Amino acid sequence: MAIGIKAVPFAVVAQVLGIAGIILVLIWCIRFRGGLAWEATNKSLIFNIHPVLMLLGLIVIGGEAIITYKTLPLKKEVKKLIHLILHAIALVLGIIGIYTAFKYHNESNIANLYSLHSWLGIGIIVLYGIQWIYGFLVFFYPGGSSEIRRESLPWHVVFGLFVYILAVANAALGYLEKLTFLENSGLAKYGPEAFLVNFTAIVTILFGAFVVLTVLSQPVQEDDYSYSAI
User: Fold this and answer.
1) DSSP of the chain
2) pLDDT tens by residue, 81-121
3) Span 175-219, pLDDT tens digits
4) pTM of this prediction?
5) How would you label 115-146 residue by residue, b for 16+ Cβ within 10 Å and e otherwise?
6) For all residues of the chain together, what is the average pLDDT?
């Protein structure tokens, strides 16, 4: 299924939203939450790395990896390599981002994996890793037969989109969870920080929506590895 609109306009909007989302989350974590630190007496500075890396990695860079086949007028082998590398970067940043959440909890004597957000986060990073490994083995090296690649492509795309949409939804859930904790600790419900966090969540959701719209739209050039099979 594809909509009769070219992918580039959707991709441009997605990239603008992605940049906006990164700026907003940095403003939140640096301006309102005190900054980022790997080691600190104030353990909240360690946690601040988590939303930055998760948004930058799984959401923004992961989204860019998804839309490359639709928007880059390059040979399929080049697009495939870019797609693979961007997803690898997203996966590594996601793993580090999750580790910082555990690090913050452990050093603050807070229990791990008690929330739906954390459960989904672990599941998403595992599925993301499985998807990357499968794509590497079948579409890159050593590579499956042409029949295996052809039959696998639609499922690879659908499963990838499913994991990505789940990641975007879990990011929104994470914003909600953190903001709820802050408000229960005295943060003004209608203050500038609360407004900023909610707006960042909306931008994140819109970015994910435009990534999906890009996938469902008409590619810049057709080839055997485009997403037109959806």
Assistant:
1) ---SSBHHHHHHHHHHHHHHHHHHHHIIIIIIT----SS-SSTHHHHTHHHHHHIIIIIIIHHHHHHHHHH--S-HHHHHHHHHHHHHHHHHHHHHHHHHHHHHHHHTT--SS-SHHHHHHHHHHHHHHHHHHHHIIIIISS---HHHHHHHHHHHHHHHHHHHHHHHHHHHHHHHHHHHHHHHTT--TTSHHHHHHHHHHHHHHHHHHHHHHHHHSB-SS--TTSGGG-
2) 999 999 999 999 999 999 999 999 999 999 999 999 999 99
3) 999 999 999 999 999 999 999 999 999 999 999 999 999 999 988
4) 0.93
5) eebbebbeebbebbeebbebbeebbeeeeeee
6) 93
Residue with tokens 């580090």: 96
**Which H or E element spans position 60?**
none
Residue with tokens 């990505």: 164
In angstroms, how far is CA 194 from the centroid of its own chain?
22
With bands split at pLDDT 50, 70 and 90, how would you rate the model's confidence at 6? confident
CA distance 102 to 23: 24
Give the Å distances, CA to CA, from 7 to 70, 134, 156, 210.
Answer: 6, 26, 20, 10
Can you give the pLDDT at residue 219? Answer: 86
Half-sphere exposure of 112 (CA within 13 A, CB side): 13
